[in-house]
């Protein structure tokens, strides 16, 4: 397998061949977790029996997750098909997949649900990508059918798929589909511009394939999860530097709807606590402070090897006082050398190390390591902070926001310059480092590769609120917990004040509405009385004119009587 350089998630640098126009060589294992619904499984296997991918490179492993009665292999199946069962005492999709992948012999694992009818070149469409790079996660495209009427038989499915007439097997369901995935893909140029925090969202398990080695590097399935295992695995795959490829040509029918479609609110309610604990990208699920999480958002590494206790303490306490609620600190140093033998406590050459260890040995947010691994998987970020430099309360949040603006892989904060060069704090994106480690050539600078694939930027200490110990500690840290309580109380007070103000605003709006109504009524009354006054004026004018005419007539009669005289 090759390791081409793919910047971010822009798999457009690859040129996959058209189905049927290339020579496959990689073996693939299709792993199908299944529970009950034998009739749908029969159709799934019948479609796989008609695939264009060479049969000698294709194995199918069905894993029965405790069906009663047990599942069986039907007559129409691919040549190399096995049926396994989840071991006693274990259950769920994650365990079924773990069981199947442990037995798989293929270099690529293709997970497929037991209610999928794949098009003729479905497996081939997936596999053409895996021949180009060894860190791709390929996602098939689903068409949903309600399976109205009598479903086709397994024989009819096999014949239709083999003759490339899979379209005719079912009627599309107009009311259900993965429209949200299509919208995400379209919004990010076929997902080529998708930022790192978004990648895992499209990792749904109905039909997805990836190299077996990549799955192993991510840690395999989380068998403690009963639902949401595909989302959680998608997150960890992101941190291995995986590229996600949604392939519109890898078509299949989904027989019926998913549980998430039928009971969306209940699924979210069930999954949210488990996903919040494992996927730091879901920031909306980690809104509460004062919590510890299984997977931190950022791992802060401070090397205590040649530093004073005071410098290490200042750096660690500064990191732990971050406004981010999910920070973990890893302290590196020769901790194994701290034996329990007799020593002069105040003259111990390892005194500073012992003080550091004593300070944080029982803090669940701090761990000790002789050295750190190449990446901070599964945490999405790592900040390496030199001992004696203190990040401000907002520094970590500010740096991560900056990194996420352009999906950058590396931010370097210049702290000072000494005889050895520039001393810097480093914020690394785990996915970027993992990708660079995959594709870097011998002797090539890892930072240069990260910059090439994700981008790297130098920043200054003052703007990003890093200060040396003497300027930052212990003044800011004194009574830190009481300060936190005070500010929380202040925030509660401000919240109550805001609520009172909101109630006042609501009352004023109601009063204003009444005044507007009264004003409107007054305007209508004014118009009505104005109209009546005008009417009275017109009537008065008409009456006056009538009276004047009457007087004129009487005067004319008298005048005629005087001039004519008596008759």
UniProtKB/TrEMBL annotation:
GO terms for molecular function: transferase activity. It comes from the Bacteria. Residues 491-518 form a coiled coil. It comes from Streptosporangium canum. InterPro entries: Glyco_trans_2-like (IPR001173), Glycosyltransf_2 (IPR050834), Nucleotide-diphossugar_trans (IPR029044). Transmembrane segments: none annotated. Residues 29-148 form the Glycosyltransferase 2-like domain. Keywords: Coiled coil, Transferase. This is Glycosyltransferase, GT2 family. The keyword Metal-binding does not apply. PANTHER family: GLYCOSYLTRANSFERASE (PTHR43685), SLR2126 PROTEIN (PTHR43685:SF3).
């Amino acid at each position: 397998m090759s390791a081409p350089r793919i910047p971010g998630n822009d798999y457009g640098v690859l040129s996959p061949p058209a189905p049927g126009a290339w020579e496959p060589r990689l073996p693939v294992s299709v792993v199908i977790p299944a529970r009950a619904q034998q009739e749908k499984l029969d159709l799934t296997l019948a479609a796989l029996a008609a695939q264009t991918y060479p049969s000698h490179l294709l194995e199918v492993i069905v894993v029965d997750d405790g069906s009663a009665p047990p599942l069986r292999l039907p007559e129409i199946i691919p040549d190399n098909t096995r049926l396994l069962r989840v071991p006693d005492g274990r259950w769920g999709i994650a365990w079924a997949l773990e069981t199947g992948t442990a037995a798989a012999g293929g270099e690529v694992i293709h997970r497929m649900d037991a209610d999928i009818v794949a098009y003729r070149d479905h497996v081939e469409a997936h596999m053409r990508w895996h021949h180009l790079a060894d860190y791709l996660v390929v996602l098939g495209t689903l068409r949903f059918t309600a399976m109205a009427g009598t479903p086709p038989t397994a024989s009819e499915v096999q014949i239709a798929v083999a003759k490339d007439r899979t379209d005719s097997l079912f009627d599309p369901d107009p009311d259900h589909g993965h429209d949200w995935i299509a919208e995400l893909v379209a919004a990010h140029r076929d997902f080529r511009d998708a930022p790192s925090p978004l990648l895992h969202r499209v990792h749904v398990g109905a039909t997805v394939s990836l190299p077996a080695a990549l799955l192993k590097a991510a840690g395999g399935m989380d068998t403690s999860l009963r639902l949401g295992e595909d989302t959680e695995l998608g997150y960890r795959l992101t941190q291995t530097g995986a590229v996600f490829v949604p392939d519109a040509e890898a078509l299949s029918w989904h027989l019926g709807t998913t549980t998430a479609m039928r009971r969306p609110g209940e699924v979210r309610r069930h999954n949210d606590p488990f996903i919040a604990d494992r996927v730091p990208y879901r920031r909306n699920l980690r809104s509460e402070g004062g919590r510890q999480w299984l997977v931190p958002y950022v791992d802060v590494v401070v090397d205590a090897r040649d530093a004073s206790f005071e410098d290490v303490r200042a750096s660690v306490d500064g990191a732990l006082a971050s406004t981010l609620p999910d920070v973990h600190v890893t302290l590196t140093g020769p901790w194994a050398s701290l034996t329990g033998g007799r020593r002069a406590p105040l003259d111990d050459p390892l005194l500073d190390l012992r003080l550091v260890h004593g300070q944080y040995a029982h803090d669940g947010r701090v761990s000790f390591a002789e050295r750190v691994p190449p990446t901070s998987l599964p945490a999405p970020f790592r900040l390496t902070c030199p001992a004696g430099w203190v990040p401000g309360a907002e520094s970590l949040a500010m740096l991560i926001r900056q990194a996420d603006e352009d999906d950058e892989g590396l931010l370097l904060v210049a702290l000072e310059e000494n005889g050895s060069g520039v001393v810097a704090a480093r914020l690394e994106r785990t996915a970027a480092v993992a990708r660079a480690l995959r594709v870097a050539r011998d002797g090539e600078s890892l930072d240069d590769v990260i910059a090439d694939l994700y981008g790297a930027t130098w920043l200054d200490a003052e703007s990003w609120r890093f200060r040396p110990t003497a300027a930052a500690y212990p003044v800011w840290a004194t009574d830190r917990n009481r300060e936190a309580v005070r500010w929380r109380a202040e925030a509660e007070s401000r919240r109550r004040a805001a609520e009172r103000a909101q109630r006042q605003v609501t009352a004023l709006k109601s009063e204003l509405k009444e005044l507007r109504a009264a004003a409107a009524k007054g305007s209508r009354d004014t118009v009505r009385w104005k109209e009546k006054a005008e009417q009275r004026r017109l009537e008065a004018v008409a009456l006056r004119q009538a009276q004047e005419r009457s007087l004129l007539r009487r005067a004319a009669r008298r005048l005629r009587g005087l001039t004519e005289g008596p008759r």
